[in-house]
Amino acid sequence: xxxxxxxxxxxxxxxxxxxxxxxxxxxxxxxxxxxxxxxxxxxxxxxxxxxxxxxxxxxxxxxxxxxxxxxxxxxxxxxxxxxxxxxxxxxxxxxxxxxxxxxxxxxxxxxxxxxxxxxxxxxxxxxxxxxxxxxxxxxxxxxxxxxxxxxxxxxxxxxxxxxxxxxxxxxxxxxxxxxxxxxxxxxxxxxxxxxxxxxxxxxxxxxxxxxxxxxxxxxxxxxxxxxxxxxxxxxxxxxxxxxxxxxxxxxxxxxxxxxxxxxxxxxxxxxxxxxxxxxxxxxxxxxxxxxxxxxxxxxxxxxxxx
Length: 306
Hints:
eight-stranded mixed sheet
């Protein structure tokens, strides 16, 4: 909030996730959903609350519902070590096993279905190619085509979309190999495009090898309508109120919001650079320093002023 104060933005706060369950019995109250639909961008805080883990009504259900309602199909997860590694995972966010048919049969079997249509795959593939075109022009499509029918459809559609992006180098990689390659040599990747569950797992791995979830940001974009911008980490209630939380992931998410929702590329770049200054000069305890959350933010604000 302090970082955004100088900008001409109208900010509203609405209950969501664990807090909303405690107050309203649902993680996504109707008023919150309507406010999100009317907004130009949604900046999301961490939503979890341990007492609801495994419960029938969980904070994460609100997140899945919100993503579907806003149709934010393209989840962008950048990972960088500030040196050799600079990769971007483009995860399809509103299809696959998280949104497919599920249930329990009469004989006790439980099933979750991974489902994709050609239009769903085509639009995320196109987004991946467009982003690769603006970067180093290399796209890796990650799947499990040796086993899954959905992955084989992904390859067919991605190959078709490629005809419109002849300047982008395309390679396919099985997800198990991709996980190993990200862990061993992440610098080989530019843009990775993949389905929902694979992207969920690989993006956390990529964050872990480039600094951890505490510094990882994300943007979830639609074709028109508001995007969702959120840190990747959880809510960490065990350190609430101690003033030691690292705000890097949230501030980087704010930078993504400025860039993708408001076309404020200069402001986004300045914020990213200010965060890097704070990481170097006043790191929080998780990064080996002693700075409090407020002291870290003071440094960011100071760097922005400079």
